Amino acid sequence: MADIKAIHEALKYNFGFDNFKGNQLEIISSLLDGEDVFVLMPTGGGKSLCYQLPALMSEGTAIVISPLIALMKNQVDAMRNYGEDDGIAHFLNSSLNKAMIDQVKADVLSGKTKLLYVAPESFTKEENMAFMRSIKISFYAVDEAHCISEWGHDFRPEYRRIRSIINLVGQHPLIALTATATPKVQHDIQKNLGMLNARVYKSSFNRENLYYEVRPKTKNVDRDIIRFIKANTGKSGIIYCLSRKRVEELAETLKLNEISALPYHAGMDSATRSENQDAFLHEKVDVIVATIAFGMGIDKPDVRYVIHYDIPKSLEGYYQETGRAGRDGGEGTCLTFYTKKDLQKLDKLMQSKTAAEQVIGKHLLAETESYAESSVCRRKILLHYFGEQYEADNCGNCDNCLNPKTQVEAKEELCAVIETVIALKEKFNVDYVINVLIGRPTDEVRSYNHDDIEEFGTLSNSDEKMLATVIRQAAIAGYLEKDIDNLDIIKVTAKGKKFLKKPVSFKIVEDTDYTDMDIEPQIKGGASCAADPVLYSMLKDLRKKMAKKLDLPPYVIFQEPSLEAMATTYPITVDELANIAGVGAGKAKRYGEEFVKLIKLHVDENEIERPEDIRVRSVANKSKLKISIIQGIDRKIDLEELAESKGLEFGELIDELEAIVDAGTKINIDYFLNEIMDEDREFDIIDFFKESQEDDLEAAIQELGDEFSEEEIRLVRVKFLSEMGN
Description:
- This protein is an alpha/beta fold.
- It has five domains: 4-202, Rossmann fold (3-Layer(aba) Sandwich); 210-402, Rossmann fold (3-Layer(aba) Sandwich), CATH 3.40.50.300; 407-511, Orthogonal Bundle (Arc Repressor Mutant, subunit A); 533-605, HRDC domain (DNA polymerase, domain 1); 624-725, Arc Repressor Mutant, subunit A, CATH 1.10.10.
- Helices cover 49% and strands 11% of the residues.
- The strands form four sheets. Strands 3-4-2-5-6-1-7 form a seven-stranded parallel β-sheet, sandwiched between helices.
- A hairpin with a 7-residue loop joins strand 15 (480-482) and strand 16.
- The longest helix has 22 residues, at 584-605.
């Protein structure tokens, strides 16, 4: 069994962290115990650490198979920053010349290298296979493992060869990691990698702050979208369309209706596309109308709504695209316009594809259709699709839950369905089962002589659509399941067999009839956590004007949680404002005058009774460590010496510096930066943060990591926030 204490010590020693996130510890323990491990963890959950730390703790070299050269380089650079020797991590791919490859191999053979990143193409080369056979391998890690599956959204054929190469190179424990996978994709990954008995670790797909709604797509859809956007003026939103032509037309329609919007699609020249994306990030426009090409490379946390003008091709695509709303935990409205005609168009578009691709495509469309037309909790359907059980009957944050339809008893129908599925020996799909139930003697039914069985025509008076609803909702309830190896083949679960022996009430909600529906979204959790949304909106407008005037990103002035606190506690003096979390004395003096003036005017005009006590996180209560660090910087002590004198790793010192400036205290570290960096290089990093819409350190590291170390980027960010914000 893995030594838990040793794992914690290794985490602290190598990465400077005190605690693990989520189920990282269990994953690492399993891998160190020699088990195969499958990890399904959303982006930002800390997947990389799950193989990096075990690699550092194990004898030999871990082989990490990764699809992107840029991603590999970032990972290697990050690992080198943690270690004392650059040889600790290497990559082997087509970007290296012979001398570089020789150096990599020498470091691996010497035992220095703990992580060797390889592209799947490099992994399958004979000379690399021969080399890997000659070294001690600790384990294999397959990153972005969904690329293995034809059912995944980024299929890479070369990934399918990984298992056969492992068999040739040598058997060792295997960890596969992905941020998105349905049960079908997960099974496909495990099956293809020969790891069906692996320990599986999943994180939840539930995004509680997102509100899901599907509306009928009528001839007035443009009017409906304009009405929705104008009811959400000033909020950032993305509208997804399937065709480039529709993107251009809708963006133009919105502009004509005085909505600030721009188009974005792969057919535009890259300069215009980049310009439009930047305009959205910098809040120069509120809305981007886009094909699915948009959003992959950005992480704008305050997108408040995602509208699907056209129904997506798959629920996986829908989940990813709606997931771009509310990443900061605030409001996120996901509004989809649906018509059967769009599905029919998508079905026709698949006719040019191979037979296998058509089978997959039709299945994905059927799942999307079920989601759109169902009256069941949308969260429950989505999570079920990803293999997760949502226990609550009403999520309180989707159109179906906020506007529940009358339930209908379907106990008899479910009994008939279960009996028929068993009689058909669990070998047929939904459509076939329904044909038998209603007594439709199709050629296929007759070919199996199923028109002669007792169950044929049992529910001849039932509506076909209603039976499809019964089967769908019975699957969500756990009475039936689809065989993930044979699409749409219906099987009866143990719970279903128990139900048949002793039936209980089973109520269903009939599918939605969109023709009479005209519902405005009812968002739980609101546009923000502010008690006064009117004031919050005014404060955002003031921040935007001030940011434009000062040529700064809005977040540098005040971040959204600080604005929310202002719109809840109504500070009317600069001193009161300084007590708001994330403001502090420096920011309050620099930017606060106009904000408190606006708040006081709003309070007076609306006769608002302010809370007597403002609950705050006071900057004055700095820890002794922070005070001594500030004093050391005032005396211009070298930061590396300062870290050593405080018993801190250098990264830990930067953590403290970030906390100090984030709390609103100004510090001057120019004396240190001037020693380690040229002025031009420093300006390059400052320009990134100045142009960036959000204070996103990870995005900065990803963008600048080829030229700068993480420590350099973080230190310049400290300088930038201190000078511009405090």
